[in-house]
Specification:
3 helices, two-stranded antiparallel sheet, alpha+beta, 4-stranded antiparallel beta sheet, single chain, globular
Length: 97
């Protein structure tokens, strides 16, 4: 599977997450940008995901950037999307949904 296909899989998984939105039609490369739905900074989402083992970066104040990397089992994109859906902020603690 190529990087672009991994990005599309990740984007579809992220589109199901209540914390972010993604324009599926805009995913044309191996980079996926998502918009944070709530009034919270992208840096907080990045920190919460890092605590859950998902590496991503704040693109700007309200967007998070994901770049899927090759995985022998090609399971990483879907797993990252699942993690985004499970992680939420409760005060300063990270809680699993």
């Amino acid at each position: 599977m190529d990087d672009h296909a991994r990005a599309r899989i990740l984007a579809r998984a992220l589109s199901e997450c209540p914390r972010v939105t993604v324009d599926l039609d805009s995913v044309e490369s191996n980079i996926v940008l998502v918009h944070v739905r709530r009034e919270e900074p992208a840096e907080r989402v990045v920190a919460d995901l890092a605590a859950a083992g998902v590496l991503c970066g704040a693109y700007d104040r309200r967007r998070v950037r994901f770049v899927p990397h090759p995985d022998p089992a090609d399971a990483a994109p879907a797993a990252a999307g699942d993690a985004v859906g499970r992680v939420r902020v409760t005060g300063r603690a990270v809680a699993r949904l």
